[in-house]
Write a structure and sequence with these properties.
63 residues, 84% helix, elongated
């Protein structure tokens, strides 16, 4: 699971760096980029929570 999280963080960083280079001002992170990152983190957290609940439910059935 940590490998997937690391890959996700790496891709987000690459996306932000790419947009920073494209920016006219060469400015720091824009509000749009922050909102995208927050949305992605929330979605990843939701998926992890659902998978954790599913696995715990399956383990409870076994015991």
């Amino acid at each position: 699971m940590n490998t997937h999280l690391s890959a996700t963080v790496y891709l987000i960083k690459a996306w932000i760096d790419d947009h920073r280079r494209v920016s006219e001002r060469g400015a720091a992170v824009t509000l749009e980029m922050v909102l995208w990152v927050v949305a992605i983190v929330i979605m990843v957290g939701a998926v992890v929570a659902v998978l954790t609940g599913y696995v715990q439910g399956q383990l409870a059935k076994l015991s």
